[in-house]
Amino acid sequence: MTIDIAIINGTVLPMGGAKPIANGVVAITGNTIAAVGPADQVDIRGARKVVDASLSAVMPGFCDSHTHIASNMLLRGLLEDVKLFEWLSTMWQLKRNFDPETLYWASLTGLVEMVKSGITTFNEHFDAYAVEPEIEALKKIPLRATLGYGFADRGLYAPITDWSWKTLNNFGDLVAKHHKTRDGLLQIGLSPHAPYSCGEEMYRLTREVADAYSVPIHTHLAEGTQEMAYMAENYGTSPVRWLESLGFLKGDITAAHCTQLDTEDMKILAAHDVKIGHCPCCNAKLNSGTMPLKCVLEHGITVGLATDGPASHNTLDMFQEMKFAGLIHKDKTNDVEFLKTHEILELATAQGAKAMNRPETGQLVPGMMADVIVVDLDKAHSLPVYDTAAALVYSSRADDVTHTIVNGRMLMENRIVAGIDEAEIRREFRTRAHALRQRSLG
Fold first, then answer.
1. What is the Cβ-side half-sphere exposure of residue 129, based on CA atoms within 13 angstroms?
2. Which residue has the higher pLDDT, 97 or 195?
3. CA 396 to CA 231: how far, in whole Å?
């Protein structure tokens, strides 16, 4: 067996419940993990490329189970310190003026940020509605991605009603063109926006289309108090109960946020194997509440960590998300022993992959996809490293990632992203973003 890439001398964290391996080796052949183990147990003779990971952690790339890239890159820092619905209203003033070229450069900038921060797999919910620019950008920086076409038919999002119905009714064409293409890296899905922006007929048709074409669903759910009030007033029930009444809930769904769940809601989600993309930074910033993670996990619900978009989180940094998750849940539960460092890492990798229905990644296990990152721990802000998991969760930063490998391909080596002009990308994005803001808000 020929080894294409051998990563040596690092502390390997395979995840999926496996213990760290000191002085470990990860061997990659083609696009898959060929072997993982101690240095004296993995033969790497003849390896075509060797990466020395001394004083570094070697782990699966982060799996961001709920985010918005193309649209939210253009909204970063636009509006702070307001409530969710008011925030959404201002954001829409820019979204309605999006153009494909601007979205392309925004997508590229987001992909640069992700690859440089160790995110190798992401679950995109399109609230920009134009998906093609990001599909094009992924040709330049080929991360593992599920791109969810966003739909809505009421309220703030009423202007995209006709587009939503047309796209839903012709989704088979998009599946044939894009789903499970590019060596399996690219998948597409269905993203009805939220129960307050999509009606019964749209959710029912989304379910029919998902069943017909075996594509995943990605929706916002039980995100904040304003949503709960809207659902109570218009439907007399909770968002979770309403979707269950439509026969919508199944295991192919990633439900983002879920901060406002009660015990009955959790039982329903567990019974239907609905997964959750958990966004603690975003939820805290927008005062959407804190998902009752301890209770959710006790109900057996799969949960992945997620950044949400740069509009509400401001960065695509899973290190920040991990640290804040640990802090806020210890505080909210009044239980310092809840959510240990290795459990947080699982939420950001193996569980994140499962939460977005991409189980082929998120672990360093022979036969799984070779999505690997190397994180330099020999930093003043990380030393001394008594415990690798603790250093990664509470001390490390996005720019500590030195190497990013996706599908067996080295996308970043020693902080240099292959095949792009990063300065050009930043320049084009900066120019187009400021022009968009000017023509949208004056």
1. 23
2. 195
3. 40
Identify whether the C-beta of residue 299 lies closer than 8 Å to the C-beta of residue 270. yes
**Residue, of 89 and 269, whose pLDDT is higher:** 269
Distance of CA 393 to the CA centre of its chain: 17
Contact, 148 vs 124, CB < 8 A?
Answer: yes
Sign of the four-CA dihedral 413, 418, 424, 428 = negative
The whole-angstrom separation of Cα 178 and Cα 205 is 20
Distance CA 117, CA 357 (A): 22
pLDDT tens, position by position, 171-185: 999 999 999 999 999
C-beta atoms surrounding 228 within 10 Å: 18
Residue type at position 375: V
Residue 335 contacts residue 294 (beta carbons within 8 Å): yes
**Which H/E stretch holds residue 217?**
strand 217-221
Contacts of 313 (CB under 8 A, 6+ apart): 279, 281, 282, 285, 307, 320, 321
**C-alpha torsion sign, points 157, 159, 161, 166:** negative
pLDDT digits (tens, 9 = 90+) for 308-344: 989 888 999 999 999 999 999 999 999 999 999 999 9
Decide if 301 contacts 292 (C-beta within 8 A).
no
Number of other residues whose CB lies within 10 A of the CB of residue 440: 18
Q: Residue 128 above 70 pLDDT?
A: no
From residue 305, alpha-carbon distances to 84, 356, 375, 390 in Å are 20, 10, 19, 17
Pairwise CA distance, residues 76 & 309, whole Å: 8
Provide the CB-side half-sphere exposure for 254 (13 A, CA). Answer: 34
CB-CB contact of 36 with 14 (8 Å):
yes
Question: What confidence category does residue 234 fall into, taking pLDDT thresholds of 50, 70 and 90?
Answer: very high
User: From CA 301, how far away is CA 139, in angstroms rounded?
Assistant: 34
Q: How many helices (DSSP H) and strands (DSSP E) are in the chain?
A: 16, 17
Give pLDDT tens digits for 18-52.
999 999 999 999 999 999 999 999 999 999 999 99
| Residue-level pLDDT at 341 | 98
The token duo for 434 is: 């400021």
| Total count of residues recorded for the chain | 442
CB neighbour list of residue 251: distance below 8 Å, 6 or more residues apart: 272, 273, 274, 275
The pLDDT assigned to 95 comes to: 82
Packing angle of the helix pair 171-178, 200-213 (nearest 10 deg): 40
Q: Strand 5-12 vs strand 56-60: parallel, antiparallel, or unpaired?
A: parallel
What are the structure tokens assigned to 411, written together?
């996308």
Q: In angstroms, how far apart are the furthest CA atoms of the chain?
A: 67
